[in-house]
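Extended Data, panel c. Modelled sequence:
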Amino acid sequence: MKEAVRIEQFSTGFDGWHYINSALYVLPHIDLETKDLKTAKLRDLHNYIMDDIDIIESITDNTKILNTIFTWDNKLPLKQYLNKTMQKQNTKYLPTFVKLGGVYKDYAMHIIIHYPFSFMRYYYLPNCKQTFYPYSGCITGGFDRAKIIYEYYKIDKEKTLEGKHKMFSNTTYHSVVKILHLIMWTSIIGIGITAFLKRKKLFFSIEDKIVFWGLFSFAVIYYASSIFAAPIEIRYLISMHSIQFVFCYVLLNKLLSSELFFFKEKNAIQTTDKQKTNSAFERKEFFRSKKASIVYLITISVVVLFICAYFIFQNFKSSNDMQTTKQMKWEETNDPRMKNYIEACSFFENLPDTVKVITRKPEIFYEFSGNKKAEGFPWRATPDEIISYLKKTEATHLILDNRFTHAYLTLYPAVQKYPEKFKVLKKIGEIDTIAKLNPTYVLEFNDGGYHGERVNGKKTDKAKN
């Protein structure tokens, strides 16, 4: 780590990102206040995340599937906070990622420790169900490429794997997958319970015990780690199918061997000198029983192997459930505040790259402004501190939006105190007291002040009314 990112720590920080990804599923259901957090870093992070709590709540409430979307989606708070920290500290991606992992882990551990029952309800139990009985899209796997990928590389979608294997998008196919998965676990549990009830009749050599309990212990640790660590995905499932098959195969061998031994002993006792005629018949019956048991063992083993192997097979189309893991598209939002903010960002598409914009979400601004960079601002600064910050950053414009809380809380007081330093270039939306909506403004900043209307790009001396 020291050689790669010049940070002397063992962890890459990735554990912290996964911790907080899990904790965000709990956050909308608890009353965590800023003052409850011990350090300034945690309080700052909490305030930033809570600014987007409605987005987090929407993602966690509208899906029954847990995933790692908070870790990877650039439009969600964790990656945005990373970008904000990089800009603020003028650092590169990897060192910032590693350092933030520690902060994210501390924040997540505070939630886990102080709200254990909520964490159990909203993360452990759903992920436990998802681990042992995953949704069909997870089992079948698939490719989920954005439309732009096909367009950019000029790929004919019909010639891709997902295009050739359209049967995997059929809802009937996914229903069959769910049924087979249920049969698999029913078989495993049934065989396990039967072996436990007849454990006194089963013979295990020392080598058998080492193999069996080694595999069993590995399975328990693996599943426990998976439930705690992260939402399950197909690459985590595949490795366990061989363990499941061996578990069933070993127990079936022991169970059927014990039955064969029982039949043999029974036949030996019943065979006497007075029953020679019947003994021949009984030996014949014993032979038939032995043959039937072997067939039974092979049949069950093949069925279990088929079910396990069926899930290992790489299919190429996700189910509708996989749609929940797609990245959010801001432009498709129904939130009028977000639409207004996007329109404000789009205002800068045709302006020169030399403009210096101050906004609450530089990352979203970059996407909708024609890839123009912007700067954030201190959230709890006074009006005078905001003006000093605008001058220091050589800001030319700012966006006063209603979507992200701190714009009106922090920027608006500065505009009210020094109205002569700001000029409205665009107003988007109207005041709606019932819906608690305010307009979004695109403002131009000039520390010298605007004393009149501009004529040919220059200020006049005539004061505005």
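The chain has a mean pLDDT of 77. This feature is highlighted in the accompanying rendering.
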